[in-house]
């Protein structure tokens, strides 16, 4: 689990003090999830970082609640469709969603059509995991550090492209934050997902890209890409020699994140029960190890902290989007 100090370092603009994971046992013990399987909706296709994080969480949640947790992939609209499915589900506590920053903190503030209201229709349960973005370049690009990349970009204004998994995605906003902080002229090239963007990055069709660590780790390990920095408050154990963006001289923080939500109509005692079960699952040593192998960090925290976190992340990325004139309408 991430400590208070580590979370403050990871996301300074949205740092929140964590509370003991089982802060409301009296409430939780008075509620019970109805009989039957629990749906854990993943609003993205199978096999991606969100899906992998959800499947581990679902297994541990099932053990804590003594229920069968079924992971259900409902992708589309950057996570909005699957999240909406849970927002409108029966409020019996048996429908959860492991949603993402894009679906509930970025899309709403960048003008994307939203079938639900984050504040009114969703109940935040807990922040589950942080997934840092990694900045990488093709092996053939003649740079080996962020400083060299910035210098190269300044010597070639308007000639370098950066890929992303789509307009308004975390990689897109991380690239915009980098462009503004470094004072360089680079062009955004959006793709339909991370996989085709990484393919073109390796081929040199785009010259740089931020992405969730798992999306590029095998290519980095295989020598197809060069990692320049981690856009987080600390280095990743998976690539201990790779500096943070701040260490590299351009202090960009871009942690993608996944959080557990349910319908706001679920009664408060059931919400508390689900929170306490998630908190216990996130302390499981096997889950911590599995997340670490994917480059993710389990977080936890109270419902109130997660609600505040969403609001602060919305404000932070909304400002980046406004300055770059990014819209998703």
Descriptors:
329 residues, alpha/beta, D-Maltodextrin-Binding Protein, domain 2, 2 domains, ten-stranded mixed beta sheet, disordered N terminus
Plain-language structure description:
The structure is a single chain. With 329 residues, this protein is α/β, with parallel strands linked by helices. The chain has two domains: 4-131 and 255-323, Bordetella uptake gene, domain 1 (D-Maltodextrin-Binding Protein, domain 2), CATH 3.40.190.150; 133-231, 3-Layer(aba) Sandwich (D-Maltodextrin-Binding Protein, domain 2), CATH 3.40.190. 41% of the residues lie in helices and 21% in strands. It has 13 helices and ten strands. Strands 1, 2, 3, 4, 5, 6, 7, 8, 9 and 10 form a ten-stranded mixed β-sheet that branches. Strand 1 (38-42), helix 3 and strand 2 form a beta-alpha-beta unit. It is globular and about 65 Å long. Residues 1-28 have low confidence and may be disordered.
């Amino acid at each position: 689990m991430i400590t208070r100090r580590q979370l403050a370092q990871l996301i300074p603009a949205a740092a929140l003090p964590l509370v003991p994971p089982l802060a409301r046992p009296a409430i939780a013990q008075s509620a019970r999830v109805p009989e039957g399987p629990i749906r854990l909706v993943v609003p993205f296709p199978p096999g991606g970082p969100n899906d992998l994080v959800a499947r581990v969480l679902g297994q541990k949640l099932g053990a804590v609640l003594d229920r069968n947790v079924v992971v259900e992939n409902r992708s589309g609209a950057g996570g909005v469709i699957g999240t909406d499915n849970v927002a409108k589900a029966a409020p019996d506590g048996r429908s959860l969603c492991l949603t993402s920053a894009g679906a509930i903190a970025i899309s709403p503030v960048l003008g994307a059509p939203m079938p639900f209201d984050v504040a009114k229709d969703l109940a935040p349960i807990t922040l589950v995991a942080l997934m840092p973005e990694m900045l990488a370049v093709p092996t053939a690009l003649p740079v080996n550090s962020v400083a060299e990349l910035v210098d190269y970009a300044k010597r070639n204004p308007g000639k370098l492209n950066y890929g992303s998994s789509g307009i308004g995605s975390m990689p897109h906003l991380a690239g915009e934050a980098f462009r503004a902080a470094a004072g360089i002229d680079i062009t955004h090239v959006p793709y339909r997902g991370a996989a085709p963007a990484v393919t073109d990055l390796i081929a040199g069709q785009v010259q740089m890209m931020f992405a969730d660590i798992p999306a590029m780790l095998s290519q980095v390990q295989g020598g197809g890409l060069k990692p320049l920095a981690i856009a987080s408050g600390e280095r990743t154990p998976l690539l201990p020699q790779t500096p943070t963006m701040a260490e590299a001289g351009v202090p960009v923080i871009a942690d993608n994140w996944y959080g557990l939500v349910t319908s706001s109509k679920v009664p408060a005692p059931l919400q508390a029960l689900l929170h306490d079960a998630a908190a216990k699952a996130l302390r499981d040593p096997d889950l911590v190890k599995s997340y670490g192998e994917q480059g993710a960090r389990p977080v936890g925290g109270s419902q109130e902290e997660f609600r505040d976190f969403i609001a602060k992340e919305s404000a932070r990325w909304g400002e980046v989007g406004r300055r770059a004139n990014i819209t998703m309408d």
